[in-house]
Amino acid sequence: MVGIGMTNATATRTYLSSQVLSTTNDTLMKKVIKDCANKYSYANDALQAALQDLAADSYDYAFMHVTAAVDYPNACHNAFKRYPGSAYPSELALREDALKHICDVVLGIIDLLGWHLGSKDYVPVFVFQKAILLSTLST
Question: pTM of the predicted model, to two decimals?
Fold first, then answer.
């Protein structure tokens, strides 16, 4: 799932970069779009860091990085709100929602992993469940 989120963030950054080229001579709008492209790049970086955290069983840090990945597109959305007369592109809204949903699933799985590992009733069967959950997150 983290990999799917990274793919979404990278594809959205690429989409935004192409929009900079097709935007008219509106320099302020170009700046907003470039800033948004950077935000999606940061979201990708945060998800990459989350994968490293998961490999190290650092679930609290993984949770923090995925939460950051969700917030970067929100900052992009807010940039459009600050630009008078601009509408948030529907294509970008769809991509933002998709990334948020993917990250919500990842956060739920990380929450389960952290809860089980912190439990005093550690069950050996959980080792198998953990392997399945981690393989799900890595895709």
Answer: 0.82
Domain tally, the chain: 1
Rounded Cα–Cα distance for residues 110 and 24 (Å): 43
CATH number of the domain at 27, please.
Answer: 1.20.140.40
Instruction: Write the pLDDT tens digit of every residue in 89-124.
Output: 899 999 999 999 999 999 988 888 776 555 444 444
Other Cβ atoms closer than 10 A to 13: 20
DSSP notation for 30-99? HHHHHHHHHHHHHHHHHHHHHHHHHHTT-HHHHHHHHHHHHHHHHHHHHHHHHSTT----HHHHHHHHHH
Give the DSSP letter of residue 25: S
Backbone angles phi, psi at 113, to 5 degrees: -60, -45
**Distance set, CA 53 to CA 8, 15, 95, 107, 114 (Å):** 20, 28, 25, 13, 12
Length in residues, the chain: 139
Rounded to a whole number, what is the distance in angstroms from the first to the last CA of the chain?
A: 5
